[in-house]
Amino acid sequence: MALPEIAGPPVPAVPEPPRRRGLLPLLLFANSAMMAVYMGVGSVLLPLQIAEIDPVRKVAVLGLIGGISAVFATAFNPVAGALSDRSGRRSPWILGGAFGSLAGLAFLGSVGTALLVGIGWCLVQATMNIYQAAVTAIVPDRIPAARRGTASALVGLGLPIGGTAGVLIASQTSEHLRSGYLVFGAVIALAALLLTTFCRDVPRTEAANPAPTEREPKGRQLAAFLSALSHHDFRWAFIGRALMVLGYFSVVGYQLYILDDHITLPAGLTPPGAMAVLTPVSMVAMAVSTLLGGLLSDRWNRRKVFVGVSAALAGLVMAVPVISPTWTGMLVFSALNGLAFGCFMAVDTALVTLVLPRAEDAARDMGVLNIANAGPQVIAPFVASAVVTGLGGYTPLFLVGGALSLIGALAILPIRSVR
Hints:
mainly alpha, Growth Hormone, Chain: A, globular
């Protein structure tokens, strides 16, 4: 799963794009469909399929497939974005990514070995990130600068809406995995068709795409790209974000197996059914804390306290399922974890914009921060699998995830230029 991308500063002034009625609802649906696939397939259908194929080694197999597929996701997103920039068109990449994902999901539903499941999920991650890169670019392409705040907020609702819908769909099709995969493929294909039909491409102008300048050697480009990490405050913000994301996804990625093997569920409640309850609880809490955290941190002009407290809370609540491995404990954990993660992501993004080394390199340096989002998601499946198999269960996983979040909270303290 990919986190919503961090927006850079406004691009230099160009002619305002033509307004399209209904664009924002289409973008919301497109992003919701994307998050439905990431959450519904990645959190429910894929773990169920792996458990059917290899119930004994399911944790290790899921970790291996999740880690390798995340590499594909991380690589294909920027490459597809750059190619769609160069082509000047978004629709072909949206349609290609969506229908490629439909094919990959159909393939996933028809295979019965761990190797083929891994190949299928890597294909889906690659094609979904082609789709995501092109859809994400529509906001700066088509939305006037004065409306981008509203647009970004609306598009951001795709996570709680799509995540909840995806898990609900997956829980209803958990007994028929092939049908479930086809439903998700149809959803993403429909979203792409609606968006490209009612929001047709507008050729990008030379003003929006200036002629390329002479490029520096690749080694120098890489050094310049990573130069922000030499800045004291930015480096600590990067470390805090990376640790928080790693702790969060190490646990959340294994939630279905946690419910199956670690938690005592009420009679008649299956792990997929439990996911269908816990995900809306977490997502609603996340949406509320995202809004409140952003508003209150602006009003009080305080960032570090919100970021530090929310990261610390995320670490502490990991102890709840350890102390109380019950259904009630998981409900409490899901609500508090959603509150903590939503507030952290909202306010930490604002904090990072205040510690950028140089305003003229802001877009590049915010791109560096995205490594702290994507990189830990590559590592998390390997970390989680090693902890569960090597340390003997899910209790150590919660403790490791909590420790990572708590260390992430401490990483905020050395930041000096922001209150």
